[in-house]
Amino acid sequence: MLIQFLVLFSAAISCQASLDSIGFDEWSSKSGNLQQQESEAASASAGACKATFAQGTLDLSPLDSADKPRFKNFAKVQIMGISYNLSFNPCSPFDCGVIATDSICATGNLMTYGMGEQNSSRIEGQPPSSLRLRYKGSSQLPLKPILSTVRLVCNATEDGRISNVVLTDGGNYNLTFDLHSRYCCLTPSPSGGNTGWSPGDVIVLLFCLSVALYILVSMLINGLVRRRSGADLLPNGQFWCHLALLIKDGFEFSFKTIRSCLCKGRENYSKI
Ligand SMILES: *[C@@H]1O[C@H](CO)[C@@H](O)[C@H](O)[C@H]1NC(C)=O
Ligand SMILES: *[C@@H]1O[C@H](CO)[C@@H](O)[C@H](O)[C@H]1NC(C)=O
Ligand SMILES: *[C@@H]1O[C@H](CO)[C@@H](O)[C@H](O)[C@H]1NC(C)=O
Ligand SMILES: *[C@@H]1O[C@H](CO)[C@@H](O)[C@H](O)[C@H]1NC(C)=O
């Protein structure tokens, strides 16, 4: 029985070795690095309204409303003395008259301004408390760039509310407002970074477990049903016997080589 356990044990060791040699460890740490790179990129720029940070994930998409603004006419602002209604959709542009590329629009009786082009959208700031969405407006008409900043305020009890709307007219038109929502809160990442198991690890583990199970069950069947003993207990006993002989030959060869080297050394030593 001892021999069989030794075989199982060495199978486990070789499985562990194959895990290392095939490079699954490297592979999993690489995918970990990839995640990290993604999060850095996402914090600097995100065309969509999702970002991953070390502290968790930001996902504003439940706040979005396809093709129409989720927040319609939420405030009035004055541009060159004329009053405009603001509308906002956090993740996708909507049709606000002649303009259909912006996620923030200022709509008046005669004019419409694109206040935040969706493809210019960036998630910025230091999580968790000072995250912002930034946009450049598509409209060139005020003859100054339009910059919009949406401060993301995490409030677990609110679906979506906008406050503190301010438009300043200086070197640029700067529009800022606060978006209060549970979706402005970071969701902790499910796996704690690199400690998680990669799919490759799981596959190799399952493979090794099934090999071990196969050997164990075969041994049980061979022993209990076919009433065999010794090396015949093992599945494909012939094959394992050959393998054992090969290994024995290999060891003998290297042992002889090492011994001949050592003895030669000793001869030389005694001559001196
Ligand atoms: C602005 O919004 C108000 C109420 O939300 C609405 O009555 C008004 O017609 C809107 N004006 C324009 C130009 O869309
Ligand atoms: C966004 O798209 C418009 C055309 O739809 C293009 O003119 C503009 O350069 C794009 N901006 C960015 C930042 O990609
Ligand atoms: C969250 O929203 C509720 C309801 O609007 C408000 O009463 C509360 O003060 C807010 N909490 C924070 C931390 O802003
Ligand atoms: C508008 O925002 C930009 C960038 O944040 C800033 O450099 C500029 O001073 C702001 N202008 C005004 C008038 O607030």
UniProtKB/TrEMBL annotation:
The chain crosses the membrane at residues 202-225. InterPro entries: Autophagy-rel_prot_27, Man6P_isomerase_rcpt-bd_dom_sf. Keywords: Membrane, Protein transport, Signal, Transmembrane, Transmembrane helix, Transport. GO terms for biological process: protein transport. It is a single-pass type I membrane protein. It is found in: Preautophagosomal structure membrane. GO terms for cellular component: Golgi membrane; phagophore assembly site membrane; trans-Golgi network. Its main location: membrane. This is Uncharacterized protein. It comes from Macrostomum lignano.
